Amino acid sequence: MNNEIHNSDAMEPEYDFTHGVRGKHANVMKQGYRVTVHKLDGTTEERTFTLPEGVIALDPDVQAYFPDSDTVNRALRNLIALIPQKKAS
Q: Highest taxon of the source (predicted)?
């Protein structure tokens, strides 16, 4: 029996992300994507994934400032309040 404690948060040494690019496929994912599922019986099934209606994706550099959607909405409402209102004619 192996008594070694395994830390699930530790990165295994065989993974090398030194040339990785964060968000490389983000724009394509925003547009939706198709996955082909190969089943054990030999058949395949195509599944299409898209963002739900109303979802707005933030770029990674912007996401760093907002931990959740409530924070984003609060910041946007504060910006909207700064926009001068048009006078009714």
A: Bacteria
Split at pLDDT 50, 70, 90, the class of 34 is very high
State residue 18 phi and psi, 5-degree precision. Answer: -65, -25
| 58: in domain | yes
Per-residue confidence (pLDDT) for residue 41, from 0 to 100 = 97
Domain count within the chain: 1
3 assigned to some structural domain = no
Give the residue from 27, 13, 86, 18 showing the smallest Cα distance to 58.
27
The model's confidence at residue 9, banded by pLDDT at 50, 70 and 90, is: confident
Look up residue 31 and give its two tokens: 């547009």
Q: What SS3 class is residue 72? A: helix
Both tokens of residue 5? Answer: 């404690």
